[in-house]
Automatic annotation (TrEMBL):
This is Epoxyqueuosine reductase. Belongs to the QueG family. Monomer. The active site is at D147. GO terms for molecular function: 4 iron, 4 sulfur cluster binding; cobalamin binding; epoxyqueuosine reductase activity; metal ion binding. Its main location: cytoplasm. Pfam families: Fer4_16, QueG_DUF1730. It comes from Abyssibacter profundi. NCBIfam families: tRNA epoxyqueuosine(34) reductase QueG (TIGR00276).
Length: 363
């Protein structure tokens, strides 16, 4: 009996391609990969409700293109599958992170932002993965995304069996916690979807993330009010920070990790294998007064290729001024703030004045 074999240049079967994609993803530094279709109706309704309640604050872009979020095939014509990947970014122990957070005179920068901008790094790796797919399947049409378009990445990651969405609204994996980035490739290749049962939500009755949030931004399970979230206030929000939220910000000058630090599942989080995510310029332990002394040129130079650049120099100074108002009432912090009373930015001057009032009240 003659056994049929594939011609040497034949396109591999979808099942073979899926296996190769997993191998290629591992080679490219990704720590998890899954494949899913698009069944996002409930997630889109959740988004619409969030928008109706105004919880997106000034992030008007979240209200645009919700039709694209509902139907990924409109972002990549003919797409029927999503290859979802995750990449770990934790570089320090929880104790080291907590020690910085507990020191009011040191700046706390969300740990995802301490190294190279993950958007560029992961997008480059996903492009390589998409090229390998097209080389193996010439008919493949693929487009990579890394938090760069209206894609419901957490929902797609959940459906690709990369975890469950926790009460803090982040994707969680029992063996990897939540210290990871997500990325996607939309493709027209009919890859077999993961048919394992959905990842079980293991949050149970735990409410640690909701209780720890400094500004009570997590108003219920998977209910985040961005208007109160420190990540929103220090990065997305470009105006004055509401006075009632300034004290709870503590020393958090770019983002916030409290809900991740307290999550029991992050006891199992794996350290990153990616050296480009290592902290730069000592920003994992930097003093507030030292960062406040950066000129705009220093800020632009030292944050080149980093997520921190997103806040802008005035936002950077605004955030540090608030943190200095929450820091130890020392002569050094007072002097640093007084030197900024004539800052060219009215936004910075407003927060400097508030900070000085806090230090005077502490005396």
């Amino acid at each position: 009996m003659r056994v049929k074999t594939q011609p040497p240049n034949a396109t591999p079967s979808p099942e073979v391609l899926a296996g190769r994609i997993r191998d290629w993803a591992t080679e490219l530094g990704f720590d998890g990969v899954g494949i899913t279709g698009f069944d996002l109706a409930e997630d889109v309704e959740h988004l619409h409700q969030w928008l109706r309640e105004g919880r997106h604050g000034s992030m008007d872009y979240m209200a645009r293109h919700t039709d694209l979020r509902a139907d990924p095939a409109r972002l990549q014509p003919e797409a029927i599958r999503c290859i979802s990947v995750r990449m770990n970014y934790r570089t320090q122990s929880a104790d080291a992170m907590q020690a910085c957070l507990d020191d009011p005179d040191r700046a706390y920068v969300s740990r995802y932002a301490l190294g190279r901008d993950y958007h560029k790094l992961m997008r480059g790796r996903l492009k390589q993965l998409a090229r390998r797919l097209q080389e193996a399947a010439p008919e493949a049409l693929s487009r990579p995304f890394v938090d760069s378009a209206p894609v419901l990445e957490k929902a797609l990651g959940r459906d690709a069996r990369l975890g469950w969405i926790g009460k803090h609204s982040l994707l969680l994996h029992r063996d990897a916690g939540s210290w990871f980035f997500l990325g996607e490739i939309l493709t027209n290749v009919a890859l077999p979807v993961d048919d394992d049962p959905p990842v079980k939500n293991l949050c149970g009755s735990c409410t640690a993330c909701m209780e720890i949030c400094p500004t009570q931004a997590i108003t219920g399970p998977q209910q985040l009010d961005a208007r109160r979230c420190i990540a929103y206030l220090t990065i997305e929000h470009k105006g004055s920070i509401p006075e009632g939220l300034r004290k709870p910000m503590g020393n958090r000058i770019f983002g916030c990790d409290d809900c991740q630090l307290v999550c029991p599942w992050n006891r199992y989080a794996q350290a990153t294998r990616e050296p480009d995510f290592a902290p730069r310029h000592g920003l994992d332990t930097a003093r507030l007064v030292d960062l406040f002394a950066w000129s705009e040129d220093e800020f632009l130079s030292r944050t080149e290729g980093m997520p921190i650049r997103r806040t802008g120099y005035a936002g950077w100074r605004r955030n540090i001024a608030v943190a200095l108002g929450n820091a130890t009432a020392s002569d050094e912090s007072r002097q640093a703030l007084r030197g900024a009373l004539d800052d060219p930015s009215p936004l910075v001057r407003e927060h400097v004045q508030w900070a000085l009032q806090q230090l005077e009240a502490a005396d």
